[in-house]
């Protein structure tokens, strides 16, 4: 007897959105289902390496796509790990991953924008409901005796019952609606698969179009891993396919970094810097598509933590090495010295590519920085080892430019420093507009001393901890003791004289302001404004203070 169940509420919401989506590129549903099949095959292959009693002939692993035009049906089958009853309920009836939840939270309610989000990032299994009136999943988990059928018409419920399936694995049966019935055409399937799934690591089989081989299946994708090829032999379009079909990327990558190392370490890597990240990838620490680790062409782990630093979490791709045993335990990967060494090499490569981009392609770099700069700056706080490299690539707004588009590096700032200037000056605040009009800048403008204008929330945490950069101390222009060094010797004297002259007056002001300030001083810092608030020595800058207050401190 089939048992009827309700989707979890988020799943309902997502389904609803998918079905009513205006998204035009419906064909990506096939890419999502094939990529799930490929994941299931990867999981099985990995299990056979680590689990005794599970043996698999790697040659037999494959994905089959069959179509039945008459019945408007497409079936995607794999002989992968399969699902039991609980898996079906958990993985398909619920949206378990925090990624999809974050995705839902991002939704604006504006159908046009929201459907665009789906189009960009795909929503996995559920995308089948863009073209289907009903989807069935028949699956048998490896090592189990019973198979189950899950089915749903994309309304609020799904059903589960026992089913017949001899081998372990999964069939996804997509019952197309009349409108999308032509997806069951062989030529159409062929073109979609070549376009979106060409570099899936397992054979994707489709019925031959040859009259004489009617009914026979033939492989239509290329399974030689792209990363093993010589980069000179790879077309740009192939990289793009791989980026979206195997790495969960969208559109074209911003940068493709294909390297091969031999000698002390031997590995091949194919890394991508995307144009942008989906909103959930941006915030979600447990992302799926980071750098995947392969050992001798066999997939080992999706997202090896710390293989590259957390602040490069936007990087996607693959690294494949011959220097590890196939049965390397997943738990130990992170500590493995070979993995660490490779990770270090990849990290250095990323730094050098980013530096090269900054130098040779400033416009591209500017886009890159807009997208990922905030994330990278986290490294200044967390990664002491790569501090110097990070300091070379970070960028900030500054008074040397005349708009928020202008950004400077530390190097450029230091080059422009005035003779006698000892420090690197900065001012933190919420936005460029208000910062560039701050009274704190008056003296600096007058003396033509450059000030970095820091608008990212992270800057306020990172800067005070940076200490000296290029042997120059970092100083907030809101600090009480400004110390412009030789730049304002005269000013110092003038201040002292005025302090004496106005002693009585200052005392009165202090009395009136009473507890609200700790001191009142004469200053030559201001040219247009009569007075301003500054932070005392050893106290927090005003933004920091505001932030702490907001946190209830
Ligand atoms: P994702 O692939 O990002 O996890 P999906 O919505 O595409 O999200 O799939 C949801 C889950 O359903 C998968 O994580 C997996 O556990 C399970 N699943 C889907 N298709 C298959 C399949 N062919 N074989 C085994 N498990 C599958
Ligand atoms: Mg998926």
From TrEMBL:
<dbReference type="InterPro" id="IPR036890">
    <property type="entry name" value="HATPase_C_sf"/>
</dbReference>
<dbReference type="InterPro" id="IPR001404">
    <property type="entry name" value="Hsp90_fam"/>
</dbReference>
<feature type="binding site">
    <location>
        <begin position="120"/>
        <end position="125"/>
    </location>
    <ligand>
        <name>ATP</name>
    </ligand>
</feature>
<feature type="region of interest" description="A; substrate-binding">
    <location>
        <begin position="1"/>
        <end position="330"/>
    </location>
</feature>
<protein>
    <recommendedName>
        <fullName>Chaperone protein HtpG</fullName>
    </recommendedName>
</protein>
<dbReference type="InterPro" id="IPR020575">
    <property type="entry name" value="Hsp90_N"/>
</dbReference>
<dbReference type="GO" id="GO:0005737">
    <property type="term" value="C:cytoplasm"/>
</dbReference>
<feature type="domain" description="Histidine kinase/HSP90-like ATPase">
    <location>
        <begin position="25"/>
        <end position="180"/>
    </location>
</feature>
<dbReference type="Pfam" id="PF13589">
    <property type="entry name" value="HATPase_c_3"/>
</dbReference>
<dbReference type="Pfam" id="PF00183">
    <property type="entry name" value="HSP90"/>
</dbReference>
<feature type="binding site">
    <location>
        <position position="83"/>
    </location>
    <ligand>
        <name>ATP</name>
    </ligand>
</feature>
<dbReference type="GO" id="GO:0016887">
    <property type="term" value="F:ATP hydrolysis activity"/>
</dbReference>
<comment type="similarity">
    <text>Belongs to the heat shock protein 90 family.</text>
</comment>
<keyword id="KW-0346">Stress response</keyword>
<keyword id="KW-0143">Chaperone</keyword>
<dbReference type="InterPro" id="IPR003594">
    <property type="entry name" value="HATPase_dom"/>
</dbReference>
<feature type="binding site">
    <location>
        <position position="330"/>
    </location>
    <ligand>
        <name>ATP</name>
    </ligand>
</feature>
<dbReference type="GO" id="GO:0005524">
    <property type="term" value="F:ATP binding"/>
</dbReference>
<comment type="function">
    <text>Molecular chaperone. Has ATPase activity.</text>
</comment>
<dbReference type="InterPro" id="IPR019805">
    <property type="entry name" value="Heat_shock_protein_90_CS"/>
</dbReference>
<feature type="region of interest" description="B">
    <location>
        <begin position="331"/>
        <end position="546"/>
    </location>
</feature>
<keyword id="KW-0963">Cytoplasm</keyword>
<keyword id="KW-0067">ATP-binding</keyword>
<feature type="binding site">
    <location>
        <position position="91"/>
    </location>
    <ligand>
        <name>ATP</name>
    </ligand>
</feature>
<dbReference type="GO" id="GO:0051082">
    <property type="term" value="F:unfolded protein binding"/>
</dbReference>
<dbReference type="InterPro" id="IPR020568">
    <property type="entry name" value="Ribosomal_Su5_D2-typ_SF"/>
</dbReference>
<feature type="binding site">
    <location>
        <position position="32"/>
    </location>
    <ligand>
        <name>ATP</name>
    </ligand>
</feature>
<dbReference type="GO" id="GO:0140662">
    <property type="term" value="F:ATP-dependent protein folding chaperone"/>
</dbReference>
<feature type="binding site">
    <location>
        <position position="36"/>
    </location>
    <ligand>
        <name>ATP</name>
    </ligand>
</feature>
<keyword id="KW-0547">Nucleotide-binding</keyword>
<dbReference type="InterPro" id="IPR037196">
    <property type="entry name" value="HSP90_C"/>
</dbReference>
<feature type="binding site">
    <location>
        <position position="170"/>
    </location>
    <ligand>
        <name>ATP</name>
    </ligand>
</feature>
<feature type="binding site">
    <location>
        <begin position="98"/>
        <end position="99"/>
    </location>
    <ligand>
        <name>ATP</name>
    </ligand>
</feature>
<feature type="binding site">
    <location>
        <position position="78"/>
    </location>
    <ligand>
        <name>ATP</name>
    </ligand>
</feature>
<comment type="subunit">
    <text>Homodimer.</text>
</comment>
